Every structure is written in C-alpha cells, then in structure tokens.
Amino acid sequence: MEHTEIGVVHTKIDRADPAAVAELAKYGVATVHEAMGRVGLMRPYLRPVYPKARMCGTAVTVLLQPGDNWMLHVAAEQIQDGDVVVAACTTESEDGFFGELLATSFRARGCAGLVIDGGVRDVTDLEGMDFPVFSRAVNAKGTVKATLGSVNVPVVCGNALVRPGDVVVADADGVVVVPRERAAEVAAASAAREANEEGKRAQFRAGKLGLDLYGMRGPLAELGLRYED
C-alpha cells in the first residue's frame, strides 16, 4: 500500500492485538511517547476539541481531498469496534470536514474517536456525545462530496506516519502513534516507566530534590556552576 494511492478502499487490514491496545489505553500520551523511544508524536497543533477528550484504538486511515469529506462517509463502512479514524489531507485544509452527523454514524459502528489534520464543527454536540475528536482547527465552513481519496492506505497526519491498524493514543498532551507490531512491547515499556515514575514521585513527596535523585550535582559542578551567598 502506498499513501499516494487515490481511489482505493482496502477492506482487509491487520490490526494491533486487542489485548495490547487495552494495555496501552491505561497510559497517557507522554508516557507512551517516552516508552517508545521518544518517537511517534503528531504535531502539537492537533488538539482535543473539548476538555478531557481522550482515546485509544486501532487506526482506520483516510486520505481526504481539500474541502471534500466524501471519503469519511466511505470510511464509516470499514470501521470496527474500537477503531479510531485518522484522516489526513492531500494538502493543507482547515474546512469543517466532520460534525455531529458523521460522529453519530461513526459511533454506531463502534468508533472510538477521530484524529483529523483538518477542521471540524458541531463541537458542542461532539462534547455532549462525548465523541473524542482531535483536530487541526474548529471551522464551521462546510465541505463537498466530489473528489476521490482513499481509505486504509498509509497517511501522514500531523507529520506522523500512520498505517491502517496502528494504535493511536490521544489525550490532553497530544496524539501518539504506536506501530501495530510494537504495541505489546510499548505497552510493557509504558508499564515499567509508570512504575519507575511512581517510585520517583514518592521520593519527591518526601522532599528529595531532583538534583540528588538524578545525580545532577557533579555534572553541574563540572560545567562550572557555583553557588554564591
């Protein structure tokens, strides 16, 4: 599959293991990103359209044409329970590709949310439905249905490569993509990182300084840091 394919819908995709997806859902974006080696983040302009929106699921990908949401309707048929729709565009566009009606359709298919490098609208309704959406913009401007794109091809969304079936985790800190074949490994690494951070948290609560916990004093002194009364 190539991300430049136009006019194709791939109906069979390999999704990440559901158990690994469920494990990844326990952790925040920052934890997953760090546990994976500080890779996989989408650009920070992709923001939740309402507070406390979060999601974790396997990607059904959509390649849109600017100002045209036809392929989102095509993608609805390919959604399975727990999927997240990830929509990119052939060129920058902030039109309102998605709103409450499409959210209703997606939810009926078991969709866990949407990440779109474009605009959305009906934000109050989306919040009322608690349908998580992360978007480039909020924009009331409507779209047409006139030009073919593709569904379930690799796309670049917010500068991150997303393949059908990869895991997408999103919360207030941003959006991170976990390659489907690494889902179990990254979930385990996230659990280990969380446990390690809890140990540090306990020491910070007890009053220990990061200077000592992380052994910073020696390197700072070597660089010439001095304390003066």
TrEMBL record:
InterPro entries recorded = LigK_PcmE, RraA/RraA-like, RraA/RraA-like_sf
Swiss-Prot/TrEMBL catalytic activity: oxaloacetate + H(+) = pyruvate + CO2; 4-hydroxy-4-methyl-2-oxoglutarate = 2 pyruvate
Record's Gene3D superfamilies?
A: Ribonuclease E inhibitor RraA/RraA-like (3.50.30.40)
Cofactor(s) recorded for this entry are: a divalent metal cation
Top-level EC class, please?
Answer: lyase
Pfam families registered for this protein in UniProt: RraA-like
Q: Which superkingdom is the protein from?
A: Bacteria
- EC assignment: the record states 4.1.1.112, 4.1.3.17
Q: Which PANTHER family match?
A: 4-HYDROXY-4-METHYL-2-OXOGLUTARATE ALDOLASE 3-RELATED, BLR3842 PROTEIN
Family named by the database record: Belongs to the class II aldolase/RraA-like family.
Q: How does it assemble?
A: Homotrimer.
**Entry function:** Catalyzes the aldol cleavage of 4-hydroxy-4-methyl-2-oxoglutarate (HMG) into 2 molecules of pyruvate. Also contains a secondary oxaloacetate (OAA) decarboxylase activity due to the common pyruvate enolate transition state formed following C-C bond cleavage in the retro-aldol and decarboxylation reactions.
Entry protein name: Putative 4-hydroxy-4-methyl-2-oxoglutarate aldolase
Taxonomic source organism: Streptomyces hydrogenans
What broad taxonomic lineage does this protein's source fall under? Bacteria, Bacillati, Actinomycetota, Actinomycetes, Kitasatosporales
